[in-house]
Amino acid sequence: MTTTLSAPEHAQPAPQASRKPSWVKPSVAGLLLGTGLLYLWDLAKTGWANDFYAMAAQAGTWSWKALFFGSLDPGNVVTVDKPPFSLWVMGLSGRIFGFSSWSLLVPNALAGVASVGLLYLAVRRLSGPGAGLLAGAGLALTPVAALMFRYDNPDAFLVLLLVAGAYCVVRALEHASTKWLLLAGVAIGFGFLDKMLQAFLVLPAFVLAYAVAAPTSLGRRIGQLFAAAGAVVVSAGWWIVVVALWPAADRPYISGSTDNTVLELAFGYNGLGRIFGEGRGGGGGATFAPPSGMQAPRGGGFGGEAGLTRLFSAEFGGEASWLLPAAIIGLAAGLWFTRRAPRTDRTRAALLLWGGWLVVTALVFSYMSGIIHPYYTVALAPGTAATLGIAARELWRGRANFAARVVLAVLVAVTAVWSFVLLARTPEWQPWIRYALLVLSAVAVAGLLFGADRLRRLGPVVAVVGLCGALLGTTSFTLATAAAAHSGGTPSSGPSAAASGRGFGARGGFGGGRTDAALVDLLKNTTTKWAAAQSGAMESAGLALASGRPVLAIGGFSGSDPAPTLERFRQYVADGDVRYYVAGGRGGFGGGRGTSGEIQTWVEQNFAPLTVGGTTVYDLTKSVD
């Protein structure tokens, strides 16, 4: 059994080196074209997606300095509460093609196509084109992938950088290449500049796979890994150093930090705070709390209870768990079947790499007690898809052994049953799908158990029927996700998400609300540095995007960052830099306290209100004195 399911020794030609079957090229082309169609079709219906990041990308099209720092406005008062890598790409796209929904979102969709293609290439190199195609299709047809690759959150580019890092590790494994291992470190470093410590979740898997399976001495493996760690530090640290050395008075405030530094943001609000439950909605020490009328679930921000079942819960299950049970079983089976293989065995190396990615990421997401959103699971999808693709391919190759056929049948059956459960959570939507996949899977399971797969003409039929049964559920949810328009800070996938507003601001609010037309017209006619100021970015982002004029988001994302100070804001007003103050902004999770509250009080005391449409506005050129 071990020799049947083991991949070739490292000294033998890699799978890609042999002559490819005639079906490979058209299959890969179909995979990439289908993925592109899925992620790009009618993309403009999503609008600005998450207004918060769209506002920063817009600012980057007006100011190179804002682009570099990831500022929310071209005046560089405060940044987004994430590093700016994704904003660099979207901002440059807006500068080249003109700022629009398309120029904002197309780079994310292309990042999705590239992720699928790189995943195919990475899996193919160690496990052959069949496994690569299964892995690529598994990623492309994960609902949360269709959601986030059609969105402007940083997650799309995070996934691309992580998959690129894994591809480089695979290349390094082939010949113990220092160059490729260093490139893997660079990819992870830039992943840090996209979403900070979340990029490091794959590092244990990368280190384990290389330390175990690289075809060189132990001492050289250790030295190469230390060199790769240096590459991570340099590629992530150069931007941090520049920000630290830049005079604080001449750059924006680092939103989400308590001391205006990137490192505190990385290890505080966006790092350990996310894991251990000390998250804040912004800087200044504000405590995280949702807006009025919303209640965050216990055990994590909008992610339900922490624990092993979280990823299968109502909040998370439909996002990325469709293939997860089968991937876990396939990982265990693959490691068991290769337990006696040589140290450099390719199949085991691939399982350690992708299975390690799956296990570490799943455990961290399961037990995070800070802020976590279900769409984070897009980072789990490549590890899940690759692990299952590799395991399924190896079991299919070894199906002459009855044990391999049994495990393969279990994978199909478990996927079908879990897909049925997930589909049953939206019982009114296309109920025939869940029964169809049960029938298809039952036929495939029977064929595997009774050996029909070993007959020359029936083998491909069993394989196709099994794949259809296993992928029908996740495919249907993915297509429904891509067919719906999504907006706001916490979008959800699936057929009912947009209609029901599932999630915090799935449609409208939290960066997805509508702006008053009369107010937008008022701002369009301004010529000042900022057309208006408003507390928090959740509402002011919509004003900036709708009017095409800069808006100062007081206090950053949540209104709780100490930027600008009251004294600085008063100077802006005295210099004629801000025309209007718009009331009704969400002082956000800061509750209107701190700097945002001080500025609001000062405005109310010194300027007379007027009503524009349904909004209270203060003309800052007309003092009540």
UniProtKB/TrEMBL annotation:
Q: Where is the Glycosyltransferase RgtA/B/C/D-like domain?
A: 81-238
Q: Which GO terms describe its molecular function?
A: glycosyltransferase activity
**Alphabetized UniProt keyword annotations:** Cell membrane, Glycosyltransferase, Membrane, Transferase, Transmembrane, Transmembrane helix
Source organism's superkingdom?
Bacteria
Q: Write down the top EC class of this protein.
A: transferase
Listed transmembrane segments: 102-123, 129-149, 156-174, 180-213, 225-249, 320-337, 349-368, 374-392, 404-426, 432-450, 462-485
Primary site of residence? membrane
Q: Where is this region: Disordered?
A: 1-22
User: How does the record classify its membrane topology?
Assistant: Multi-pass membrane protein
A Pfam match is PMT_2
Q: Which residues form a coiled coil?
A: none
Q: Where is the Putative mannosyltransferase YkcA/B-like C-terminal domain?
A: 521-606
The places in or outside the cell where this protein is found are: Cell membrane
Q: What is its EC number?
A: 2.4.-.-
Q: What is this protein called?
A: Glycosyltransferase family 39 protein
**Organism name:** Amycolatopsis nalaikhensis
